[in-house]
Amino acid sequence: MSNDDVVDTLNDLIETCKDGEYGFQTCAEHVQAEELRSVFTQRAAECQRAASELQSLVTQFGGSADEGGSASGAVHRGWFSLRGSLTGYSDQAMLDECERGEDAAVARYRKALKDEDLPESVRSVILRQFQGVQRNHDQIKQLRDRVQQSAM
């Protein structure tokens, strides 16, 4: 695998991390429950740290690291803002949006891990981060289910 291919893979994941960071920050700003605000703020910080780690790897492979999120992430945030302004920002809506974002993150990390030509040092970082993304997804899903059950 060429260094350019490694950089492209890493930059895709940086965009994913930035999308997560921005998404969790937005949800933290609009959620009502303090527990959820804390979870979302922590997740945003974790996404930021993951992006920084990947940006360092990009530099090691001679590339230029992406600094922002993806176009699809921007569209999702725009839709989220529009939907929220029309229907209100409920805790359930915040959790639904976070789970949707985490579904996308899990898929992008899985795609990166399918590339068997990644250098082992890069693969190990991606795998560790993927495990964190999967934990985030599972936690958000559990919180969503709990909030949904309490609303019934």
Show the helix and strand layout.
Blueprint: H1 3-30, H2 34-60, H3 71-87, H4 91-113, H5 120-151
Helix pairs in contact: 1-2, 1-4, 2-5, 4-5
Plain-language structure description:
This protein is mainly alpha-helical and 152 residues long. The chain has one domain: Ferritin, core subunit, four-helix bundle (Ferritin, Up-down Bundle). It contains 5 helices and no strands. α1 runs antiparallel to α2 and α2 runs antiparallel to α5. It is elongated and about 55 Å long. About 3% of the residues have low confidence.
Keywords:
152 residues, mainly alpha, Ferritin
- How many E strands? 0
CATH topology: Ferritin
Q: Main sheet?
A: none
CATH arch. level architecture: Up-down Bundle
- Enumerate how many helices there are, as a single number: 5
CATH superfamily: Ferritin, core subunit, four-helix bundle
What is Rg?
Answer: 16 Å
Count of domains: 1
Q: Beta-sheet strand percentage?
A: under 5%
**Which descriptor suits the 3D outline?**
elongated
